[in-house]
TrEMBL record:
Residues 262-281 are annotated as: Disordered. GO terms for molecular function: nucleic acid binding. Residues 112-274 form the Integrase catalytic domain. Pfam families: HTH_21 (PF13276), rve (PF00665). This is Putative transposase. One of its GO terms (biological process) is DNA integration. The lineage of its organism: Bacteria, Pseudomonadati, Pseudomonadota, Gammaproteobacteria, Oceanospirillales.
Length: 281
């Protein structure tokens, strides 16, 4: 039986005109260039995040780039491209301890601040590189959760946190009346670090002993870094680690990664919108 005869029989059977059938056939055969473009962008941004970006993050990135798109469509595009985001594992926190009497917790979990350079937070984490542990210190401006300073070293000493503070102080234009909040690590309670704070006229605040929630924004930065970016096996060399982490902190995190606190805007772009309403801390 010829194809045309078979088509006539089927159209008659289902009471569908041949013109409607052929019109629908043409639409199915037409390539959806807009969808292909969006799928290509979703794949590109997903790869930029090293497989960490989910549908919510990808939707925010596309919207920031001027595309009107819903989360359901992003999920569909991810499915078409066989993209599955990495999910961070469970994170366990230590129990609350007593407060350091020498350096009080002036911040007291007041993480929402109204201006830049009002409160900076600092913390240290460890990174495996070149068959040994190295240490990363970061300074975060709470205003829009922007990373303003960092340092990387094989020694977790006071110089590490001083170098991160120095970078923040210079990059932010040597601001006045800043509060610096951290945990009670020996680096932050050291005389050298406290002298540097005094030189910059920065007021010091500290979490209660063993209480990660008192410095929750910094905990989130390190959790994102380790779950989204750092290879599970670490880095082959210190220079490789330093270069890659620098790119994540100062480029991807600050300039391109959507932040839920900023309603989907990266920290650097959010700083340019002073009237932006903040989300969760």
């Amino acid at each position: 039986m010829r194809e045309q005869e078979a088509t006539e029989i089927l159209c008659g059977l289902f009471d569908v005109s041949r013109s409607s059938y052929y019109d629908n056939l043409k639409r199915e055969q037409k390539i959806d260039t807009e969808r292909l473009t969006l799928r290509s962008l979703v794949t590109e941004y997903f790869n930029d995040s090293r497989g960490a970006a989910g549908s919510r993050t990808l939707q925010s990135i596309l919207q920031n780039e001027g595309y009107t798109i819903g989360r359901f469509k992003v999920r569909s595009l991810m499915s078409e491209a066989s993209l599955h985001s990495k999910q961070p594992g469970a994170h366990r926190y230590k129990k609350t301890g007593g407060e350091c009497l020498d350096i009080p917790n002036h911040l007291n979990r007041q993480f929402n601040v109204s201006t830049p350079n009002q409160v900076w937070c600092g913390d240290i984490t460890y990174v495996w590189a070149g068959n040994r542990w190295h240490y990363l210190a970061v300074v975060l401006d709470l205003y829009r959760r922007r990373i303003v300073g960092w340092a990387f070293s094989s020694n977790p000493d006071a110089e590490l946190v001083i170098n991160a503070l120095d970078m923040a102080y210079e990059q932010r234009g040597q601001p006045k009346k800043v509060m610096f909040h951290s945990d009670q690590g020996s680096q932050y309670t050291s005389r050298k670090f406290r002298q540097r704070l005094w030189r910059y006229r920065i007021r010091q605040s500290m979490s209660r002993r063993g209480n990660c929630w008192d410095n929750a924004p910094m905990e989130r930065v390190f959790r994102s870094l380790k779950s989204e970016w750092i290879p599970t096996t670490g880095y082959r060399a210190q220079n490789e680690a330093k270069r890659d982490i620098s790119y994540y902190l100062m480029d991807y995190y600050n300039l391109r990664r959507p932040h839920q606190f900023n309603n989907g805007l990266p920290p650097a772009k959010a700083e340019e919108q002073p009237n932006l309403l903040s989300g969760i801390s």
